[in-house]
Specification:
The chain is an alpha/beta fold. It is 32% helix and 23% strand. The chain has helices at 43-50, 92-100, 109-115, 131-141, 161-176, 188-194, 212-219, 241-248, 257-262, 285-294, 309-318, 322-335, 366-369, and strands at residues 3-14, 17-28, 32-36, 58-63, 77-80, 149-153, 180-184, 197-202, 205-211, 222-227, 267-272, 278-282, 300-306. The longest helix is centred in the middle third of the chain and has 16 residues, at 161-176. The chain is globular. Adenosine-5'-triphosphate (ATP) binds at residues 14, 17, 19, 37, 39-45. Residues 14, 17, 19, 37, 39-45 line the site of adenosine-5'-triphosphate.
Length: 370
């Protein structure tokens, strides 16, 4: 394995915004690296530095042992940016020939078209292609010069499920034939399907950088879904043991089974499905279920499963802001009618809704998980 590209203590600012903050990263040959992060995390900025389109304010970016600002270095690099503008009047085959002509050893047009499944489109004008067909062509163009390293910024945005899987297969084949790939995506399923190594970025900082399995293990949450008594699990009082006696002795009667469950050790997050049934992300499902029983919490329909990458990702990128969210949630609780769900997630990539009775969050800090 050799290092094809690296960032060493790289910072890049745009005015008051620090898009990348002291980032260090090596891209080794032979890997598929998934770059994950919410909107504005710094992913595209990182790719633009590797492409030499921007220079860092501090730190060093190296591509194939040289500066990516040198065009001769970039001859071994292939890229598909987030948005491409291909010339509408040209035929697909002409576009491939035009881009291919910039490289000393190019893939023949028919071969590239066959690898990426657009043989039947070669004579079509680019302007007549669907959005998905244009995207497939744009990604294929990154490979026309037989690059050693390819940077793909959200390659399958706008593709339907079938087209996405076809493109994944093409990318896997290119990787198997020796191309190193860095891919950003908002389809977390895509990173799970493609990447061997995952770099999680948020706020311009690297939160995690490890192989896929270890990123999941690092977060280590298990998802436990269950039904608690009464609608929305509010004011259920059928339990025995410490939970029910604690509730019975609560003068205000505001404590709920849900509140008791959320305060059990190891509960990281709570989400609710459309029926109002909770799913708890917990660090140790065995200990959680033991505590449920010990506390006499009445529950039904218990289901336990491992976290997906998306859930791991949300846990990683949310941990630092949870304290702030808790403060927001407290304020919202004062105003919200009883039982109304509170949207505690300010970030656009967040999907969870924290219940107003949730006042305790035991999410690991970034230091602990990263
Ligand atoms: N040319 C620019 N001028 C000013 N701010 C910029 C510029 N480019 C990026 N930024 C800011 O830098 C931060 C990182 O942006 P970047 O595009 O790298 O994020 P990203 O992770 O690629 O986001 P997305 O997933 O939405 O594409 C954002 O706050 C963005 O607004």
């Amino acid at each position: 394995m050799t290092t094809l590209a690296s960032l060493e203590n790289v910072t890049r600012r745009f005015g008051a915004v620090t898009a990348l903050d002291d980032v260090s990263l090596d891209i080794e040959s032979g890997s598929i690296v998934g770059l994950l992060g919410p909107n504005g995390a710094g992913k595209s900025t990182l790719l633009s530095l590797l492409q030499g389109l921007r220079a860092p304010d501090a730190g060093t970016v190296t591509l194939f042992g040289s500066s990516p600002r040198d065009a001769r270095t970039r001859i071994r690099l292939g890229c598909t940016p987030q948005e491409t503008a291909l010339p509408d009047p040209l035929r697909v085959g002409e576009v491939v020939d035009f881009v291919g002509a910039h490289f000393p050893d190019r893939v023949p047009t028919a071969t590239l078209a066959s690898r990426f499944g657009f043989d039947d489109l070669l004579r079509r004008q680019v302007g007549s292609l669907s959005g998905g067909q244009k995207r497939r062509l744009s990604v294929a163009l990154a490979f026309v010069g037989r690059p050693q390293l390819v940077l793909l910024d959200e390659p399958t945005t706008g593709l339907d499920v079938d087209a996405r899987r076809t493109l994944w297969n093409a990318l896997r084949r290119e990787h198997a034939s020796g191309t190193t790939v860095v891919v950003t995506s908002h389809y977390l399923e895509e990173i799970e399907a493609l990447a061997e190594r995952v770099v999680v970025i948020d706020g311009g900082r690297v939160l995690a950088d490890d192989d896929l399995g270890r990123v999941l293990a690092q977060v280590g949450v298990t998802r436990v879904s269950l039904a608690l008594p009464a609608a929305g699990a509010q004011d259920a009082r059928g339990g025995a043991g410490a939970a029910s006696s604690a509730m019975a002795s609560d003068a205000r009667g505001a404590a709920s089974v849900l509140g008791v469950v959320e305060q059990l050790p190891g509960v990281v997050r709570t989400e609710f499905d459309e029926r109002g049934e909770p799913t708890f992300s917990v660090t140790d499902s065995d200990a959680f279920v033991t505590a449920l029983v010990r506390e006499g919490v009445p529950f039904q329909r218990l289901r336990i499963r491992g976290a997906t990458l998306e859930e791991a990702f949300l846990t990683l990128t949310h941990s630092d802001t949870d304290a702030a969210d808790a403060a927001d949630t407290d304020a919202a609780v004062d105003e919200a009618p009883p039982g109304a769900p509170v949207e505690s997630d300010r970030h656009p990539s967040r999907h969870s809704t924290r219940h107003p009775s949730s006042t305790t969050t035991t999410a690991p800090t970034r230091k602990e998980v990263a």
